User: Which sequence fits this backbone?
């Protein structure tokens, strides 16, 4: 007997994992021996704050998927599970990367390159999962008028994945590591997303 999937159960589990990710960031704050929050270094709060809001953004992208789409199957559940798994580990290289930029964590050129590669892999896998979830939902609901938006976001997040892959290549080759070229490359996402939206409107929405 085949049961219908329940979106609410998937969303509830996902929210729990995001909440656990936020908890992991809190417990890694630098505290003094009295374990008071006031004993944590201000620099740690900055890296925690940036990591936390990145986590919130990832949660919002996840939230939007289930608002735009009501279709769910085993493939989407599997992709969502991979996504959540990577999110739990994503915040740690991100936090270390922020600390190195702030000069709070001593790191050499090779270690910084490895950090960019690790960050890029997490970024690429997360947004690849989002893109594939949208594309799977589009393929199964493309007879509906609203499904064109699912195709748009599948392509949109594919750009994020491709950008991360190029950043990873720069990190592996250590191109511009001294001034953070692999990180600044993500700045191209703005222009790329604008060009994609313009192209998509012209070819699909009009």
Assistant:
């Amino acid at each position: 007997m085949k049961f219908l999937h329940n979106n609410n159960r998937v969303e509830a589990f996902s929210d729990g994992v995001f909440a656990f990710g936020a908890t992991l960031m809190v417990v890694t704050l630098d505290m003094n021996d009295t374990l008071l929050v006031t004993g944590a270094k201000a620099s740690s709060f900055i890296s925690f704050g940036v990591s936390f809001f990145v986590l919130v953004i990832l949660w919002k992208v996840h939230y939007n998927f289930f608002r735009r789409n009501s279709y769910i199957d085993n493939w989407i559940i599997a992709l969502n599970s991979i996504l959540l798994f990577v999110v739990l580990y994503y915040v740690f290289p991100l936090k270390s990367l922020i600390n190195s930029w702030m000069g709070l964590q001593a790191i050499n050129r090779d270690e910084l390159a490895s950090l960019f590669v690790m960050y890029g892999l997490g970024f690429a896998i997360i947004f690849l999962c989002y893109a594939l979830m949208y594309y799977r939902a589009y393929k199964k609901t493309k007879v509906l008028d609203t499904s064109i938006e699912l195709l748009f976001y599948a392509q949109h997040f594919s750009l994020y994945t491709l950008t991360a892959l190029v950043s990873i290549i720069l990190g592996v080759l250590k191109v511009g590591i001294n001034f953070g070229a692999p990180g600044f490359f993500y700045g191209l996402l703005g222009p790329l997303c604008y060009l994609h939206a313009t192209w998509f409107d012209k070819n699909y929405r009009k």
The chain is about 75% helix and 0% strand.
